[in-house]
Amino acid sequence: MNGLSEEILAQFRTVTKTSYSLFFTFDEEEYHEEGHFSLNGVSVLRDIKTSLPGNEIKLMKSTQFTNAALARNADNVLTGIAKLELSGTKESIVQVLKELDPTIEDILTLSMQGVAQLYIRSNGRLIPLQYAGDGVMKLLNICLAIMERKNGLLLIDEIETGFHYSMYSKLWKIINHISKEANCQIIATTHSYELITAAFDSINDPECFAYYRMGHVNDKINIHRFSHSMLGDALKAEMEVR
Question: Facing residues of 106 across strands?
Fold first, then answer.
């Protein structure tokens, strides 16, 4: 809304009262927000009132959303690897690849006819990254997103998509390690019983793990929270936790 004239603001406020808009409220301890989001044909406009002087908006955690389609984007990986290269921290992502395949020595960006491509050096040979499969590309996307969200939050939809079940344990161990280093909270959705079991077996710190399940109770959807130990008991009893 910054820079908009009072005339446009007045029109927007009129629209939110006479047509569809998204009304929201947000509370965090003593802080409160409420307002509207609405489309004007070319952009999203917002009208927000806060509990801070001058309607100042409290900055939120750096947050990103990803899913199977977004995580297959090779351009995101190229950009992320380049940032690590420039900052001198590329070895952190090389270690991730070594968790999947100990023969991997490095990951390189090479330009062929003006097109940049990623290659893995393994056993002295250079192999195009796309030959490694969608699972490796998705894992790199997730790991790079975590590294960029220091002290933030990453939302992952249907995290199991694109991964073979044999990778589940390694997947959780890698995500757990990198997210702790970045202090990044992960919220992931899944329909996979095997992935839930792998998460319980691979994340051994009960304080860093919780599982939430949505279920119908009296025609309403309720959210049930399982601690690490509660989920373990449910899995041992072969209860349905999806």
Answer: 121
Q: Which residue has the tokens 């009296």?
A: 218
Cα separations in angstroms, 118 against 82, 86, 100: 10, 16, 17
The domain spans of the chain are 13-59, 64-204
Residues 6+ apart with CB under 8 A from 8: none
pLDDT of 136-170, one tens digit each? 888 999 999 999 999 999 999 999 988 889 999 99
Strands (E) across the chain are located at 22-28, 31-39, 44-50, 63-66, 104-112, 115-122, 125-128, 153-156, 185-188, 210-217, 220-227
- Half-sphere exposure at residue 184, Cβ-oriented, CA atoms within 13 angstroms: 28
SS3 164: coil
pTM for this entry: 0.74
pLDDT tens by residue, 84-100: 999 999 999 999 888 88
Instruction: Give the DSSP per-residue string, 34-81.
Output: EEEEEE-SSSEEEEEEESSGGGPPPPPPPEEEE-HHHHT-HHHHHHHH
Number of alpha carbons in the 13 Å side-chain half-sphere of residue 202: 18
Domain 64-204 fold: Rossmann fold (3.40.50)
* Cβ atoms of residues 137 and 127 within 8 Å: no
